[in-house]
Amino acid sequence: MRPSGRALNEMRTISIETNVVKHAEGSCLIRIGDTHVLCTASIEDRPPPFLKGTGLGWVTAEYGMLPRATNTRNRREAASGKQQGRTIEIQRLIGRALRAGVDRAALGERQIVVDCDVIQADGGTRCAAITGGWVALRLAANKLLASRLILSDPITDHIAAVSCGIYGGQPVLDLEYVEDSAAGTDGNFVLTGSGALVEVQMSAEGAAFSRSEMLQLLDHAESGIKQLVSAQKTAIS
Q1: Among the four 9, 56, 77, 107, which has the fewest Cβ within 10 Å?
Q2: Where are the domains of the chain?
Q3: What is the pLDDT of residues 159-197, one digit of tens each?
């Protein structure tokens, strides 16, 4: 039995509220259970220096957690003058994931920065950030199209992510914190809306996992991604 009483392949409740930040070109508040992440997309009219003159655009991401996103207060990283390694790793993952669904030539020589701020954490924050970050990115691209700053849609597919793991000896979908902290195996799956794999992060926190267990986790992830993509479609409709 899972702590929440959910079935092994059951997602937490998914909610995506759009246009929650007045000044951002795209924004949403995504809630997956008790994990809540604010995502904004900001359009910059110049690409990073390494892309100048190439005709290609760029999508990048920044990630952070508010001090009381967890059960104890975390010191702001700005106060220490540097980002933690975990933060850097997560924001690079978000950027890589979102770029997998973008035609950078269609975007033109500009950059979209997706900021993901965790308001409340209960497991799966990076996955919620990717899923919500795509919605903010989609809304920003819509504004570029509406203003005719670009002529073709740079968004090629949905991008969403979900966590899966081995908890209590069973493969489970969408880990909340109490499961994540005790899981024997922990994994994050990033997929496109059409079901193609973008990135898989898996590690054995306890006993090693089998090929069969890995495939069961992938099956759970594919099921979860379908629900997340459905929520994305509802949010932007």
Answers
A1: 77
A2: 14-236
A3: 999 999 999 999 999 999 999 999 989 999 999 999 999
Q: Which residue has the tokens 């933690």?
A: 84
Dist CA 182 CA 166 (whole Å): 9
**Strand order, beta sheet including 26-32:** 14-18, 26-32, 35-44, 111-120, 58-65
Separation in Å, CA 182 to CA 87, 115, 154, 214: 22, 29, 40, 18
Tokens of 189: 């799956």
Ligand-binding annotation for 13, yes or no, is no
211 labeled binding residue: no
**For the whole prediction, is pTM greater than 0.85?**
yes
Structure tokens at 19: 């246009």
124 is in an annotated binding site: yes
* CATH C-level class of 14-236: alpha beta
